[in-house]
Amino acid sequence: MLIGEASALSIADGIRHYDGEMGFFADWLLGDDPEGVKSGLRESYRRLLDLDFDNVLFAHGDPIVGGGREALREFATG
């Protein structure tokens, strides 16, 4: 969800962000095809990079305040 007034993108349960590192949850939490889920999520995040945001909010973990779009780009393309 894009929160325009806050220049923020809110991400639900797809990825987490703790101690400065973004990552997926454990494979056993991602269903029968964890690699397929990860691939699909990365593709979805790449499409979100067209939106205008600078901050990223996570359901699990610390927000990224400033530079969030670039951090998500690195994760989604890396």
Write up this protein:
- Helix 1 (34-48) packs antiparallel against helix 2.
- With 78 residues, the protein is of the alpha+beta class.
- The chain has helices at 34-48, 68-77; strands at 2-3, 8-11, 16-18, 21-23, 55-58.
- It contains two helices and five strands; from the N terminus they run E-E-E-E-H-E-H.
- Strands 1-2-5 form a three-stranded mixed β-sheet, covered by helices on one side. It has a two-stranded antiparallel sheet with strand order 3-4.
- What percent strand? 15-25%
List unreliable stretches of 5+ residues.
none
Distance between the termini: 22 Å
Element order, helices and strands? EEEEHEH
Q: Give the total of domains.
A: 1
- In which order are the strands of the major sheet placed? 1-2-5
Subunit organisation of the chains? single chain
The number of helical segments is: 2
Mean pLDDT across all amino acids: 95
Radius of gyration: 12 Å
Helix amount: 25-40%
Count the E strands. 5
User: Which class do the helix and strand fractions yield?
Assistant: alpha+beta
Which overall shape is indicated by the principal axes computed on the Cα atoms?
Answer: globular
Largest sheet, in brief, is: 3 strands, mixed
